[in-house]
Queue: 2 jobs
Job 1
Amino acid sequence: MITLLDYGAGNVRSVINAIENLGENVKLVKSAEDIESAEKLIFPGVGNFGSMMEVLHRNGFVDALKRYLESDKPFWGICLGLQALFEESEESPGIPGLGFIKGRVKRFKTDLSIPQIGWNGIKCRQPSIIFNGLKGDEKFYFVHSYHVAPEEADVILTSTDYGYEYASSIQKGNVIATQFHPEKSGNAGLKILKNFLELDSKQKVMPEIRLEKTRLAKRIVACLDVRSNDQGDLVVTKGDQYDVREKGEVRNLGKPVELARRYYDEGADEITFLNITGFRDFPLQDMPMLDVLRKTSKNVFVPLTIGGGIRDFTDKNGRHYTALEVASEYFRSGADKISIGSDAVLIVEEYLKRGGASGKSSIEEISRVYGNQAVVISIDPRRIYVKSPEETSHPVIETEIPGPNGERYCWYQCTIKGGREGRDVDAVTLAQICEKLGAGEILLNCIDRDGTNKGFDIELIKAVEEAVSIPVIASSGAGSVEHFYEVFSKTNVEAALAAGIFHRREVPIQEVKRYLKEKDIEIRPVYSEQ
Ligand code: 1PR
């Protein structure tokens, strides 16, 4: 029996799913006594250091946790559950942590995108039971803006490079804590979690020591656009420049849960579901999407993002739902990140009108509670050509792809409602303002390229990626392995997303990764066992 400390933020469902998948039962902590009587305790944390400590205090968990840690019974802290063990954090100055390990939690100081989101390696520093069966070159899923800095080097279990080398996990007796998420790290993550669950029977193992720097992998994301077809079945569909109908019927490319599992097995680093009619069907009444998430998260152990319909909503009985409530329901059902499309455009319009943030937008509210890394902004832009930069007030780019009348300039107009309505906001401004409001990542689609197989719109991607410091996922237009290489070699995006070529089995994910590796682009290897 594993005891799990859920203090109410983020996706503990995936941790529960991973433990259950390994054949163990989970008991949730309801009181301080549950902590004291636990045999093995797992403490997953996401969100903000200060609010986590506040919740631990409010529930009377702090002293029980300190006693548990001192007792040297098996403990695993994940992400913020690692940071909690330290004395304090730059994220919430003046708020003490549990102080089990001497040292502080610091914000990354690097020119690289913050948060660090994605798959990075580990360098093992001391033997541990969790390394049993590991080769040492596996990658694990990280998502964080802060890292721990222990005062005593002997507690460091692994280190990782991101701009510089930092401690990515610690071990002190039977207390282990990792900055990365084992429950989101595919088979490698399940393996180390299993080692922890079987703690009694295993010897401490030291994998081969690696000296070279670890590198963050470029992520390959599989995207499933989901909606109901005319028969009322929830299907994965795919548009041509956002038009999902063929001969009047909604294209049906498969069932969401099955396809997601297939992409996990094939080595997708992340899976995104977009409920593409979410702008008109309120998701909390469209329960099948929640069900898709619940079922998928039971046996898919990489990050899951869900978008569509995340906004405030009043139903026909006058019941008001906030975007935060909608997002919370998605997180509870197994999502690691939510993505906001139409609402982000309206929020930015409002921001520009009032000359600043309201403090109440869905982006601000959700990132405050679940952390920036949990909020993705999905942008659906389309090119608007102009003859000269003076013709518009929007920032333009000089393009190598001239317009229908030979125009050499264009700007990227944001749209809402799945491209149905163009608005007076450009994609670069939108991305910058959303970053200010607390978004942690940009999913950059492109209506002109969607479903065309012509390759990513490099000009659009460069313009947005250079304007923000959060990670950008390039999307729309992938037609070949070369297109992935092009986007990673010509821009600094952290991830590339595709849909059509994967659904139609035209280019398998393994093939994309094999090609990128050949070209020396860092990827997460798809071992048969990882
Ligand atoms: O506006 O917050 O309710 O969110 C709705 C979400 O649904 C948005 O993220 C929006 O991008 C998406 N969406 C709405 N309508 C469509 C449509 O296709 N008719 N899909 C749609 C967007 C674009 C990508 C696609 C890539 C890769 N799909 O996600 O997967 O373009 O495709 P490709 O590799 O085949 O070229 P809200």
Note: The longest strand covers residues 219-228.
Job 2
Amino acid sequence: MKVCAFAGGVGGAKLAAGLQDVLPPGDLTVVVNTADDFDLWGLHICPDLDTVMYTLAGISNPETGWGLAGESFDALSMLERYGEETWFKLGDRDLATHILRTSRLRSAETLTEVTAALSGSLGVESTILPMSDDPVSTVLETPEGRLEFQEYFVRRAQRDEVLGVELRGIESTRPTGAVLAAISRADTLVFCPSNPVVSVGPILAVPGIREALASSSAPKVAVSPIVGGRALKGPADRMLSSLGHEVSATGVAKMYVGLLDGMVVDRIDEEERAGIEDLGMRVLVTESVMRDAEDRARLASETLEFGAGMVAR
Ligand code: FO1
């Protein structure tokens, strides 16, 4: 059973890991946001691709969800001695990923090819695909002015109110053949519990992706990243609010109207079921907070069964 999942960083990677655990090897493809990619010291950093790759390889840092387990930061300390700003915590082993990616991109490989090579070397059997090989950068409008995504997210610890989101370059991006093929051959399409504005939003904004999704008859289900009116991780709740969206599973469902067949919501949000159904979606109510590998696998199985139930209807 071929599954194509759409993910941003930490929350998305967790469900992707659950899907990988319950599916036969090779049946999962994860299409990942690249709109928070950026360059630092000449290196091309792809935080969401790496978070998904390290998580699926079983080597991610369990405390942060990003970066590598047991990482050291000696190179960063040396950069600090040279007077560089070191707010973006690049670990020593993580640097190897960025060095190799940058070098291969400079030798004219695509990001899709480089990602396949890196994840293959780490033993990942699922396919990890950047949403596009073309660059996009997220710029946030805030009361302090416009901020690059990592400046907002890491350097300023997401404290600024987000008044607008620009996906710079998105109109010139194209979906890759690999992404289009993964969508068209998928039996189920899963939208992971990632930020609908800055993680799933950019993927859906790549020209051609919405059309590819619309022409697939596979069930499309999302797991809500908002539980009990709060984001499980990151600034999604405050961002939804400042951008005028409802901060609830229903608010997320409204953002996906016309795209999804079903939403998975947490038990705590059970009373939102009827309202989401009124939007034309089916609803699965379950425990959606993933605390460990067992939770991830259970939520993944339930989400896939939920999708399969729609086909049988
Ligand atoms: N997130 C942080 O909050 N602080 C960091 O210092 C940080 C470093 C970092 C290094 C490599 C990497 O792949 C990701 C890293 N992240 C860090 C996470 C990342 O920037 C964000 O989680 C995403 O961009 C949002 O999805």
Note: Residues 8-10, 36, 47-48, 50-51, 66-67, 88-90, 94, 150, 153-154 surround FO1 (CB under 6 Å).
